[in-house]
Amino acid sequence: MTEQEKLLIYKTSFILNKDTSQMKLNDIIEELIDVIESKTDWTISNNEELLYSLNAK
């Protein structure tokens, strides 16, 4: 295993909070997309609430 592969496993395991060393790459990508989408949804939701509260003043 190359250093690049080890680093990828370390980083994806950290982000997904589970061991990714035995996962297929497609499964890792799907889970990473889910994490990104959930954080994006949270950010959009909070920004919309902030804009609404600023406009209400």
Overall residue-averaged pLDDT value: 85
Largest sheet: none
Series of H and E elements: HH
Number of H/I helices:
2
Unreliable residue stretches: none
Task: Please give the alpha-carbon distance between the first and last residues.
Answer: 58 Å
CA-based gyration radius = 17 Å
Categorize the overall geometry. Answer: elongated
**Total beta strands:** 0
Q: Can you tag this structure with a few keywords?
A:
57 residues; 2 helices; elongated; mainly alpha; 81% helix
Give a nutshell description of this structure.
By secondary structure, the protein is mainly alpha-helical. It has helices spanning 3-16, 25-56. It is elongated.
Topology (elements, then pairings):
Layout: H1 3-16, H2 25-56
Description:
81% of the residues lie in helices and 0% in strands. By secondary structure, it is mainly α. The longest helix is centred in the C-terminal third of the chain and has 32 residues, at 25-56. The termini are far apart.
